[in-house]
Specification:
This protein is mostly helical. The chain folds into three domains: about 90 residues, Winged helix-like DNA-binding domain superfamily/Winged helix DNA-binding domain (Arc Repressor Mutant, subunit A), CATH 1.10.10.10; about 50 residues, Ferric-uptake regulator, C-terminal dimerisarion domain (Dna Ligase, domain 1, 2-Layer Sandwich), CATH 3.30.1490; about 160 residues, Ferritin (Up-down Bundle), CATH 1.20.1260. It has a three-stranded antiparallel sheet with strand order 1-3-2. The chain has a three-stranded mixed sheet with strand order 5-4-6, with no helix packed on it. Helix 7 packs antiparallel against helix 8. The relative contact order is 0.10.
Length: about 325
């Protein structure tokens, strides 16, 4: 976890202690650091064992009360995984998510899906309920246990970083669709002016895609084991496909003939659609690194839209003079 977040969380914890008339102690800070320094779903006993390595005088009651304080101030989230133990996971700048739990080996996979949450909310409202806990716990048996194989030991990754990785993958998926659209339109278009527009926009898209790929690669280099972590953000690929404009109306007798103005119009339409979709998608999540990725992608689309719009305006001015 980045040092910036640790500093923010320490300040948040200390402010909570001050507001509630509680003492700030070295032991409480040790418990905070032990919690922040370890990913996963940690029980009171887990944290107690970690802190005891540094200070044998720390009591388990102090650990329990401190974890409750971390939960109250928004740093931790309390969860149960069906085994009777109360566990704590990171909450601050981490997205609210669901769990798939193996009832044999206790492996836990975290995931989030805005589409699933939308359906869940619709059903809850249909029956007139006010939803108190939107989390879903799915219990079953993992593939390794079904095949009686040992579960491979994977590095525990920061959920916030996995979310950022998947947000970048989602943005790259959108980029690849757009790039394919522009390249295909350029190859098929029989109008030289329109073909040139699509080819130019395709080159710009390719450069932006390379930037995203470099950002993803850098993130995976910084975070050990991140590339092996299971998918966390599950998004509907079909929703991305819907953003791509249809060229059917511009195709006559199997031939595509799009002049430069119409090609620019379609390019602006695609950029605007993508920006709006990713901005709204980002709003489904709390403040996290993954949300920032989605928001940056939306802003990038708006800047590209503005650039294409300027080209279109310059073309209009030139033809009018």
């Amino acid at each position: 976890m980045p040092g910036k977040n640790i500093h923010q969380e320490r300040e948040l914890f200390h402010e909570y202690l001050r507001r509630n008339g509680l003492k700030k102690t070295r032991q409480k800070d040790m418990i905070l650091e032990a919690f922040l320094g370890n990913e996963g779903h940690l029980s009171v006993e887990d944290i107690y064992a970690l802190v005891k390595k540094k200070d044998r005088k720390v009591g388990i009651v102090t650990v329990f009360r401190t974890l409750k304080s971390l939960t109250a101030c928004g740093i931790a989230r309390e969860i149960g995984l069906g085994d009777g133990l109360t566990r704590f996971e990171h909450r601050y700048h981490h997205p609210l998510h669901h769990h798939i739990i193996c009832t044999r080996c206790n492996k836990v996979i975290e995931f989030v899906s805005p589409e699933l949450e939308r359906v869940q909310q619709e059903i809850v409202l249909k029956y007139g309920f006010q939803q108190a806990n939107p989390r879903i716990q799915v219990y079953g048996v993992c593939q390794e246990c079904l095949e009686q194989r040992s579960t491979p030991e994977r590095p525990k990754c920061d959920t916030g970083k996995v979310f950022a990785r998947d947000a970048l993958r989602m943005a790259l998926s959108m980029r690849s669709r757009r790039l394919e659209f522009y390249r295909s339109a350029a190859a098929r278009n029989l109008d030289p002016g329109g073909r040139e527009v699509f080819a130019k926009v395709a080159l710009e898209e390719e450069a932006l895609a390379l930037q995203l790929a470099a950002e993803l690669e850098a993130l995976q280099r910084r975070e050990k084991g991140l590339d092996e972590a299971p998918a966390f953000l599950h998004f509907d690929e079909a929703e991305l496909e819907k953003l791509i404009p249809s060229l059917q109306a511009d195709t006559v007798a199997g031939e595509l003939r799009l002049g430069a103005p119409r090609a620019l119009e379609l390019a602006m339409q695609l950029e605007e659609r993508a920006a709006g979709f990713f901005r709204q998608y980002a709003e489904k999540f709390d403040e996290t690194e993954g949300r920032q990725v989605l928001e940056r992608f939306a802003e990038q689309q708006l800047r590209h839209h503005a650039s294409i719009h300027d080209t279109a305006q310059a073309m209009k001015s030139a033809s009018a003079s």
